[in-house]
Amino acid sequence: MVDGACISANLARLRLDRGWTQEDMALKAGLSRVALGRVERGAVVPRAKTLQALAKALAVPVGELVTPVRPLEGVRFRAKAQVRSREQILAAVSKWLHAYAWLEEELDEPVAFGFGKACATQAQRDPVAVSRAAREAVGVAVDAPIRDVCGLLEDGGVKLLLLETKRDSFFGLSVGQRDGGPAVVVNTWDRISVERWIFTAAHELGHLLLHPHEYQREATALPEDAEREADEFASEFLMPEEAFAKEWEATGGHSLLSRVLKVKRIFRVSYKTVLYRLVQSRRETSKVWQVFQSQHRAYYGKTLRKADEPRALGKSEFAWSWGRAGEPAGLSRHDFMDDRLSRLVRKALERERISLGRAAEILRLDREDMRKLAAEWAK
């Protein structure tokens, strides 16, 4: 039986995600605003013809309107401002987690939360110590760069979703174990630097380990102290002090610009993270930004945007600007690729546990792109 409350919730979420008023939606679906309002309030259950009209207007299958979405409670949503598509993002994450868990069970391939050994207690919430424990838990030496943060998270039992959301105010979120996690979601919109994607993944891992019971589903502005702790974890996890000191000293014969760009590539972090570490460790004063800016202008013939300067060194790195255009010698999309879910989907498809259409749905592809991907899989 079709649930009017379910249709109501899905319709409102999809409409708001597109930024449409009820009047806009009614016009596109060929309904009166009053009729649409009754459907959206759950006062009536729409007929099949009306459902098809609504789905066509929204460019979604009818199933998107009639399938209930399990709400997520243990979620930490990070954005600079209120995001209009918040509920749509959470719905996509909920469906993805459900599909992921089903595939793991169907193929009998669960992965234990290896990072769990590093979870902090309230009395011992030291970001640097927890980052070291996290590396140790998954067998990464304290002086080794992390070449593939996506693979490391997935091997450590963290589900990873790369969700391209055209909002530079939304970076990512994390989901606790009670809602199908631990999981990390990263906004991989191409206007945000890959270095930001990597830092976000490490930052959210930090939250999972440092603040495993502190979830604020409705919050936009998360506590500043918690954000700083997650930043400190991410910086130390990606670029441990011992490894940074070794690489920084090795480049001592080069200019500041060359040193920063080489070190950032080694650790796959932003140049701002390197400059921040130099100031934080008292190797340099805050004037290092102007020196870097001057050398960048002399070498590249252009000045980095003022908005890209990490001026407020005391603030969370979450508050910085992380546009791809402002990252010199930036990484590419191939430096941040999830693997495990695609691998599970391929295995399930080849074993005929799922259809091509279901595979496409799980990987968020249309059927034609899924068919093309399946044909291009190397043996």
Strand numbers in spatial order across the main sheet: 1-3-4-2
Rounded to the nearest angstrom, the distance between the terminal CA atoms is 44 Å
Largest sheet: 4 strands, mixed
- Structural class assignment: mainly alpha
Radius of gyration based on Cα positions: 23 Å
Average pLDDT score: 87
Fraction of helical residues:
40-55%
- The coarse overall form would be globular
Number of helices: 17
Strand content: 5-15%
How many distinct folded domains?
A: 3
How many strand elements? 4
* Low-pLDDT regions: none
Order of SSEs: HHHHHEHHHEEEHHHHHHHHH
Describe this structure in words.
By secondary structure, the chain is mainly α. It has 3 domains: 4-66, 434 Repressor (Amino-terminal Domain), CATH 1.10.260; 72-338, no CATH class; 340-376. Helix content is 50%, strand content 6%. The chain has 17 helices and 4 strands. It has helices at residues 4-17, 22-29, 33-40, 48-58, 63-66, 86-106, 127-137, 149-155, 194-210, 224-238, 241-250, 256-267, 271-280, 288-300, 340-350, 356-363, 367-376, and strands spanning 75-79, 159-163, 170-175, 183-187. Strands 1-3-4-2 form a 4-stranded mixed sheet, sandwiched between helices. Helix 2 (22-29) packs across helix 3 (33-40), helix 6 packs across helix 15 (340-350) and helix 12 (256-267) crosses helix 13. The longest helix is centred in the first third of the chain and has 21 residues, at 86-106. It is globular. The mean pLDDT is 87.
